[in-house]
Amino acid sequence: MTFLNTFCHAFPKKLASACGRLVYYFSLYAVPAGIVLFSIAALLMLNNRYPPTSGSPLQLQVFPDPGFAHSPGTALEALKRREHVTHAKVDGPTWFLVDVPAEPELGETAIDVPSRLTQRIACWNAATMRSLGAADQDLTTGSLRTSKQGYSVMLGRSPLPASILCFATFVDQTTLNVDLWSITDLRTSTSRFDRGVSLLEGGLLTIALFILVIAITNREWIYLLLAAWLVGNLRLGALAMGWDTQWLGRNIPLEWMPFIRQVTVAAYYLLTYTLFTQLFRSSRVASYPRLLRITQWAGLLQLAAAFLLPYEQFRPLMWAVCGFGILVMAFLLARTVYRTRSRVWMWHIVSLSMALCVMLSGILLVIFGRTPFVDIFNSVVALLLSNVMIALAVAERMREDRRERIRAQTELVSNYAVTPIGMFTLGFDNVFQRANPVLEQMLGVSLNNDNDTAIHWTDYFEEQDWHKLSEQTEAGQEVEIKRLDPSNDPGLPQHFVVRAAMADGRIEGSLQDITARTKTINQLRLLADNDPLTDVLNRRGIEKALDKSLGDLKEGQPCALAYLDLDHFKRINGLFGHTAGDEVLKQVCQRIKSALSDSQHIGRIGGDEFIVLFPNTPVSEAREAAKRIIEQLSTTAFHIGTRAFQIKSAIGVVEVNQSMSAKDAISAANHACREARKQHQSVVVYEQDSQELLDHTEELRLFDQLEGGDSPRGLYLELQPIMSLKDPLQSLNFEVLLRVRDSAGALIPSGKIVSSAEESGTITIIDKWVFSATLEWLAKHEKRLGKTQFISINLSGVSLNDDKFIDAFFANLAHHSHLTKRLCVEITEGVALQDLDRTRQFMKRLQRMGVRIALDDFGAGYTSFSYLKELRADAIKIDGALIKDMLANDTNIAIVRTIVELARNLGMKSIAEWVEDGATMQALQDMGVDYVQGYIVSKSRPPIDILNALTITDLVSSSETLAFIRKTAAQARLEP
């Protein structure tokens, strides 16, 4: 070849070109044709290095020994009584006797036991009982050797005829036969078999690896499926041809084989289904979704059975599922080939041939038995079809890719000039190499003139990181850019969206004019962030500014936030109209602005509620600014027309820390503002380490957990006993009390949590949790609460007026309907009277379910008892403030006696709270009070203490109370 090239280069240019074409055609056609012709001639004319040979079948006598009960001697005697056969079905431990005739022409001889399911074999000379050796997968001794699919006994030049006694164990049912060979032919046949196995296994694995490399390199995962499918095809071919007990030159333990074969078949089925559907997903195959779905579920059923069923039970299922799958595939392929009639038919035919290859091998084995022809046919057909399939697969995919690339290039060229978006090509030196007319109009340049001056990207826009921009484009992100020095060309677009991709050392990109869109968005953003009435920030705008300040906290910049609302502003709207109110709001904002610096922001978040943000401002300066705001608002009246309005307000200031979110900071400032009103102060400040701020943060944590549906950490229930004054030992009643601990474990006053929850609207979630937890606990321990007549639970006024809570509450009661007769719902007297009709309907609905009603805090500030006839409660709980110092105040005694008498006359029970001494308890008993509750009886207890108590005495620690109980109980027993 070197000489030929040298010779050609010595001639003129035309002759050199002709020589180049000659070399090309020689390499393209002559060399491949020569390889094919030489291969055919070698197959037809040259001697085969591994000529086909076969052994002579021998007669044998078979004797099963499943219990290993016989020795070689006794087995030999039993075998002599057996008939001679050429083959026998065996399963488990078996003795067999082989009669080896004299065959002088064979020279050195050997007998071959070709069963692939032979687990272990040992042989003796039947005449002398001399051991000939033993063999299994790992070790051979004596004259025994491994041979192809089984074992052989090397007789060598031992005198013939002879009888060979053997004992073998098998892992499954198989056909036992024995062949007589010359040692030379047996070795040749074994080498031929091993070579064929190695060639087929190595060839297919190499092809699979090649396909795997293609899949990884091109990220075409269908090739990965194809590679895995080829390996599965190899294993099924090995199963059909009888050498699946080895893998990569290693022996697989025979006891593993049934399970491995089941999993192999099941996995191969699903691989074939997946490959089939992926290859033809765009053809008419996809028009039979129900048939494909049935085929898929059949494969999944087979895979589950492979792991769960023994081989005997799995086999019929395997034939049924695989037969069904092959019929479906053949039907769909035939129908698709008939309908489409395109070049893709080669894919279909080759795929079908490969899928049927293993089945064809099995059929040939059934018809002809294991013969050299079958072995050769299986190996050659499997290897040839595999190569053909890979060649066609790669060629077809490359052809499709090439056609798609040409189509895409054609579309690109045609669309490049007519697309309404500016298209360009840049070199990596940022020089424009090509642009469509739209881009030239956008930039006001022409790239097609004869001027040699290069036009750079940076002449019009800032430098770009094109690699990053390409990644953003691929991820679908928009990147907006602005033109440099837009004042030079005011009539041209100024704002663009740029997209780019890196290709062949160049940058392919586009520019989209978004100037009009940008202007519109900026106007909308201004409206979205500002209050149109007062021209200050709205909630969204102030929260954005607050978020930025929260980010600046990490850099050490302090921040404070103020919450301000106006007193009686709604009265101005109501009396003088919204026009007057709007003017007042405008003047309020102007006065607040005058008290702030340029870096400080004001936002209106409600009708008369404002937030003031103090970025990079210590809390001490924010306090002074808040005072100035109060002074600006309070000292001078607001004049609207001829009217003057005096406005009062309160401000809560909070020092913002890094652990806060914007929502938490606003909530804390709002809380500080409410505290300012309660304390009748103009300004209240929560510094970063103040206890008020820590308490509020703890409350927010608790409310967030409740709103998130979690079981709140730190929230738990305790039970306070309610003792009967009639017969204390016959009942064990109690009230459910809420307890809260903060994250440090310290107890938080429940009243404070309830008050904050009512203000924030979270109290309904707390009430729901308390009722649900109580009912679940009561249902779980109902049998241990035999003396419990009623359990009192408080219900807040906010929950009573929440329809959503009421629906959920009654649904919960209906779910625990067997417990309702033990419940007593306590409603505060003041809450009950706020909406008398609603409360009356609620009470009637509860009482129809068997729930008792108690009016809590009765007598606290209400002088008229006429409402009791409207609210038919079951009990009255006398306000503890009347009970605590009752004996020191004759008026309280009179009020309590009146309440008790009233309750008795109305058929209601009376319960006294806050009973803390024995004298008060005795006085209440004398008045006729039914129940008492307080420290003199017991403080609140954990639920486990109530469960462990047999009577009220187990919960009482006061000796005075214990004596009172014994006396009262004794009197109760004496009464008729």
Concise description?
This protein is of the alpha+beta class.
Describe this structure in words.
With 976 residues, the chain is of the alpha+beta class. Helix content is 50%, strand content 19%. Strands 27-28-30-31-32-33-34-35 form an eight-stranded mixed β-barrel. A five-stranded antiparallel beta sheet has the order 1-12-5-9-8, covered by helices on one side. The longest helix has 47 residues, at 372-418. The radius of gyration is 48 Å and the shape is flat.
Low-pLDDT runs: 362-380
Mean pLDDT: 80
Roughly what fraction of the amino acids lie in strands?
Answer: 15-25%
Main beta sheet: 8 strands, mixed, barrel
How would you describe this structure in keywords?
976 residues, Immunoglobulin-like, 6 domains, eight-stranded mixed beta barrel, five-stranded antiparallel β-sheet
Map the helices and strands.
Blueprint: H1 2-9, H2 13-45, E1 56-57, E2 60-64, H3 72-80, E3 87-90, E4 94-100, E5 109-113, E6 118-125, E7 130-136, E8 144-147, E9 150-156, E10 162-170, E11 174-177, E12 179-182, H4 183-218, H5 221-241, E13 246-247, E14 250-251, H6 257-279, H7 289-308, H8 311-340, H9 345-368, H10 372-418, E15 422-427, E16 432-435, H11 437-443, H12 466-474, E17 479-482, E18 495-503, E19 506-513, H13 515-529, H14 539-552, E20 559-566, H15 569-576, H16 578-594, E21 601-604, E22 609-615, H17 619-634, E23 638-640, E24 643-645, E25 649-655, H18 662-678, E26 683-686, H19 691-707, E27 715-724, E28 733-741, E29 747-748, H20 750-760, H21 763-780, E30 791-795, H22 797-800, H23 803-815, E31 823-828, H24 829-832, H25 836-848, E32 852-858, E33 875-878, H26 880-884, H27 890-905, E34 909-912, H28 918-927, E35 931-932, H29 943-948, H30 959-974
Parallel strand pairs: 25-26, 28-30, 30-31, 31-32, 32-33, 33-34, 34-35
Antiparallel strand pairs: 1-12, 2-4, 3-11, 4-10, 5-9, 5-12, 6-7, 6-10, 8-9, 13-14, 15-16, 15-19, 17-18, 18-19, 20-22, 20-25, 21-22, 23-24, 27-28, 27-35, 28-29
